[in-house]
Amino acid sequence: MQIETVVYQDSKWSKPLPALDSKQTLVLVFGAPEYGSQPDVFGEITKTYPNSIVIGCSTSGEIFHETINDHSLSVGVAKFENTQLGFAEARVATDKDSFFAGQDIAGRLLKRGLRAVFVLSEGVHINGSEVVRGLNSILPEAVVVTGGLAGDGDRFEKTWVLRNGNPEQNWIVGVGLYGEHLQIGHGSKGGWDQIGPQHKVTRSVGNVLYQLDGKPALAVYEEYLGEQAKDLPGSGLLFPLAIQASPESTKSIVRTILGIDREKQSLTFAGDIPNGYLAQFMKANFERLVDGAASAAHAMHQVSGNGHSDVPTLMIAISCVGRRLVLKERTAEELKAVLSSAGEKTQQIGFYSYGEISPYTTGYCDLHNQTMTLTSIRES
Predict the structure, then answer these.
(1) pLDDT class for 303, splitting at 50, 70, 90?
(2) Cα–Cα distance for residue pair 276/198, rounded to 1 Å
(3) Taking a C-beta distance cutoff of 8 angstroms, is the pair 215, 241 a contact?
(4) Rounded to an integer, what distance in angstroms lies between the CA atom of residue 207 and that of residue 188?
(5) Terminus-to-terminus CA distance in the chain, angstroms?
(6) 3-state helix/strand/coil string of 176-237
(7) Which of 5, 67, 148, 345 might form a disulfide with 353, Cβ 3.0–4.6 angstroms?
(8) CB-CB contact of 254 with 351 (8 Å)
(9) What does pTM read for this prediction?
(10) Cα dist. 358→117, 187, 289, 298, 329 in Å?
(11) Is the pLDDT score of 302 beyond 80?
(12) Cβ atoms of residues 161 and 172 within 8 Å
């Protein structure tokens, strides 16, 4: 397996695009939102890789090795020796299409030898939980599914996914990886502090929360945020919600606000908030966020069974935009924490997202918010 990474910044490439085109080559492109209206650079990529699978998405910050950039493209090129690749796409005109889009992607990729699926999705007009539910309804539990939702800085207005060499809105793309030689690792951790009492979700529909403990959800949330409530929905990135099915459940999923409706006093989240679940407010803890990134790397190595490996490895880091807004100038610390446990032949690219897709520990995938989610890809 051959891996090369390159960054496009200030209208130039850090080095020439590597000559690794083949039917067994995967090209990942994570780019600043403004490139959605500047498609020429993508034409250069697709011209260099006419036989490869090329996918990508807009971001809330581009990850390249230990650095985070804006106004750039982070590109990873992986040419496999013994792993076959497949491609699928599905359109999502509205968030109501999310479940069937996930099913469509999974159905197209489910073939003999499928080991893993990597998915990139529209980030705003989507219900990420429904996409994941659609994927899980078709794919076997043994297939590792990871990926993320495209970003648009902290604006939540318009995202794009790279499809057929063009940045387009309202699409989901997926890559299937097939064969016994593929080694896939994954890890997803948060690092936020849960504070205050748990509240019961007394009314919700999909990813829209209307009531907590019988009270208007927006009013409860604004009371919690205090002065920062005036900056909603943007300030909601700093105060996510942890939900779990019951007090006895050991599985807690984090949800981030995408929008508010003051007339209906409701909150719209990146994923579902089921009725009857328990919800608890969260706040940032700088050290724990960085530790969470390191824990994600540890979990990934446990799954792959190979930590400090001298085997060429592509590591895809997808972290939530909320983490970046909290960490600010310390954001690079979580990237360094991740790479500190990696082998010398590991190359990292990724992006800051509106949602992360990964198994909670093992098994079927979940939609996460406010986590550092890692995927490692190598061949034996």
Answers:
(1) low
(2) 12
(3) no
(4) 21
(5) 9
(6) EEECCCEEEEEEEECCCEECCCCEEEEEEECCEEEEECCEEHHHHHHHHHHHHHHHCCHHHH
(7) 148
(8) no
(9) 0.87
(10) 10, 7, 18, 15, 27
(11) no
(12) yes
